[in-house]
């Protein structure tokens, strides 16, 4: 997908607009597959929360992926996309027993992360297989909001509560078919991940009828030039050997499962926005765009950095700009960033806009959420229409006053 392709998309579909390169998603999927080609049974469940457009789900299902879901709505989206229920794992947090029971009726794999629901579900449905989410108390992730394996996290059942898990399983006679962990996004140190994996292997020995071990995901992707990323090839080599050795020790060939989201779709995404105003103040030059944190909240929420390119004037003289949005609140995408000279009307592109970008968009300030486009087979396909005022009013009820 070239700069000219992106400009043509912005012209045809308007701005702001999200654009996803299908070939990059496919390449990342194959890269992860190849990293673990030494394991007989591997299942890659795509984390739907990263980018939940049904066309993207269908693209990944076509590659052979399963789906990792965290809500009953994501389960339903996956089924609408054509996923086999057996290829969907449902890993909620803090939901009601009733929602888990709905998912179980749909035939998806159930992953439970607290003792209370584990006991309730096992008592009522001892014949439905269940995976258990363990919190290994290992810190991973580039931001506290995306580090979910540490001791103060709300996610998972503490590894120190394994005796409680065993008591519930014994009392209910429930069938545990999987064990799971997720340490958090942006894994920087493979050895830390492998250390957490050892904790999971040790816990797995407590359950004699496992079908799979799920290592979560959180593989880091580069967000800027020279940025570090998770070396999935090195991880694959080391974890493959350890997993295969464990299967021999366990006496059964298990499935190695992962749940990548960002790794598969982040780099495939570009977010295009038009510059409305170039505003010079006493100390700053602002490039004010036709978007805001209502469309792309990650820089404000996580402090994340997305490369910004002026695709209308890529060879212009570089100047320093603060790129800001049109929301009536502090709404900053970048401070004092070097970008090719920006003119009013130029289209700028935010990279790494495939993961946790559109899915976190809102109608704040009553703004419309943008369109989504999939670049597939050298053609731009509209996969979500831009919202209109009718969409905002759709569920509102006007009363007589």
From TrEMBL:
EC code(s) of this entry: 4.1.1.20
One Pfam family in the UniProt entry: Orn_DAP_Arg_deC
Positions bound to substrate: 298, 302, 329, 356
Domain Orn/DAP/Arg decarboxylase 2 C-terminal residues, every copy: 18-354
Cofactor: pyridoxal 5'-phosphate
InterPro entries associated with the record: Ala_racemase/Decarboxylase_C, DAP_deCOOHase_LysA, De-COase2_C, De-COase2_N, De-COase2_pyr-phos_BS, Orn/DAP/Arg_de-COase, PLP-binding_barrel
Family: Belongs to the Orn/Lys/Arg decarboxylase class-II family. LysA subfamily.
Top-level taxon of the source organism: Bacteria
N6-(pyridoxal phosphate)lysine modified-residue sites: 49
Protein name, as recorded: Diaminopimelate decarboxylase
Subunit structure as annotated in this protein's UniProt entry: Homodimer.
HAMAP family in alphabetical order: LysA
Positions of the Orn/DAP/Arg decarboxylase 2 N-terminal domain: 23-266
Keyword Endoplasmic reticulum: no
Keyword presence, Lyase: yes
Enzyme category, top tier: lyase
Keywords: Amino-acid biosynthesis, Decarboxylase, Lyase, Lysine biosynthesis, Pyridoxal phosphate
Pathway(s) it belongs to: Amino-acid biosynthesis; L-lysine biosynthesis via DAP pathway; L-lysine from DL-2,6-diaminopimelate: step 1/1
Chain sites annotated for binding pyridoxal 5'-phosphate: 218, 356
Reactions the enzyme catalyzes: meso-2,6-diaminopimelate + H(+) = L-lysine + CO2
GO MF term list: diaminopimelate decarboxylase activity
């Amino acid at each position: 997908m070239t700069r000219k392709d992106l400009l043509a998309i912005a012209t045809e579909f308007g701005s702001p607009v999200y654009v996803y390169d299908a070939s990059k998603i496919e390449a990342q999927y194959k890269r992860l597959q190849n990293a673990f080609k030494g394991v007989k049974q591997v299942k890659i469940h795509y984390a739907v929360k990263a980018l939940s457009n049904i066309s993207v789900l269908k693209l990944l299902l076509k590659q052979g992926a399963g789906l990792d879901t965290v809500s009953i709505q994501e389960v339903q989206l996956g089924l609408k996309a054509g996923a086999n229920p057996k290829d969907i794992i449902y890993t909620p947090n803090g939901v009601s027993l009733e929602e888990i029971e709905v998912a179980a009726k749909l035939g998806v794999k159930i992953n439970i992360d607290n003792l209370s629901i584990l006991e309730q579900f096992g008592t009522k449905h001892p014949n439905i297989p269940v995976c258990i989410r363990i919190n290994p108390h290992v810190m991973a992730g580039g931001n506290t909001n995306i580090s979910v394996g540490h001791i103060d996290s709300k996610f998972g059942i503490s590894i120190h509560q394994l005796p409680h898990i065993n008591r519930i399983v014994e009392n209910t006679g429930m069938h545990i078919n999987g064990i799971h962990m997720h340490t958090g996004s942006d894994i920087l140190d493979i050895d830390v991940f492998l250390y957490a994996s050892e904790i999971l292997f040790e816990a797995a020995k407590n359950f004699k009828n496992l079908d799979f071990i799920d290592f979560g995901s959180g593989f880091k992707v580069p967000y800027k030039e020279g940025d570090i990323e998770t070396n999935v090839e090195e991880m694959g080599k080391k974890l493959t050997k350890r997993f295969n050795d464990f299967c021999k020790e366990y006496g059964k060939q298990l499935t190695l499962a992962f749940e990548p989201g960002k790794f598969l779709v982040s780099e495939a995404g570009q977010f295009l926005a038009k510059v409305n105003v170039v505003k010079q103040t006493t100390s700053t030059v602002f490039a004010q765009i036709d978007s805001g944190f209502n469309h792309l909240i990650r820089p404000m929420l996580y402090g994340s950095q997305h490369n910004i390119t002026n695709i209308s004037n890529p060879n212009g003289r570089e100047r320093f700009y603060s790129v800001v949005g049109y929301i009536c609140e502090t709404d900053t995408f970048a401070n004092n960033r070097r970008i090719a000279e920006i003119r009013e009307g130029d289209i700028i592109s935010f990279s790494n806009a495939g993961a946790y970008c559109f899915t976190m968009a809102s109608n704040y300030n009553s703004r419309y959420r943008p369109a989504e486009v999939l670049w597939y087979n050298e053609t731009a396909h509209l996969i979500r229409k831009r919202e209109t005022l009718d969409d905002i009013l759709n569920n509102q009820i006007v009363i007589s006053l």
